[in-house]
Design goal:
Oligomer: single chain
Shape: globular
Strand content: over 45%
Structural class: mainly beta
Strand order of the largest sheet: 5-4-7-8-1-2-3-6
Length: 115
Amino acid sequence: GTPQPGPQQASSTLVLKPVKGGPGTAKLTVTGSTVELVGSELPPTPKGKHYEAWLARADGSMKPMGGFQVGSDGTAEAEMVLNEDLSQYAYVDVSVEPNGGPPERTGDSVLRAQL
């Protein structure tokens, strides 16, 4: 007999759109505790900075999910681990943060998606 594959984990996809109407989008696919981010047409990462993805609550408090870089071709791919219950959060936010800075959101939001 052939072993049956296990149950597929449901995945959900969010499309993050520019906050200020600029170019670029990113797609977040959440499967279990893995988050895959694929960005396109994004502004390349500035020198000394990185993009950071955040989970944001309705009250505005944020928890960092992970950082990523955008190449000169405007694309980004990153995998992050999610140990949070997404139902506790209102939206996903992506900002540009200084490297080596404190783990709190200081930069401008560039992308956002409602959860």
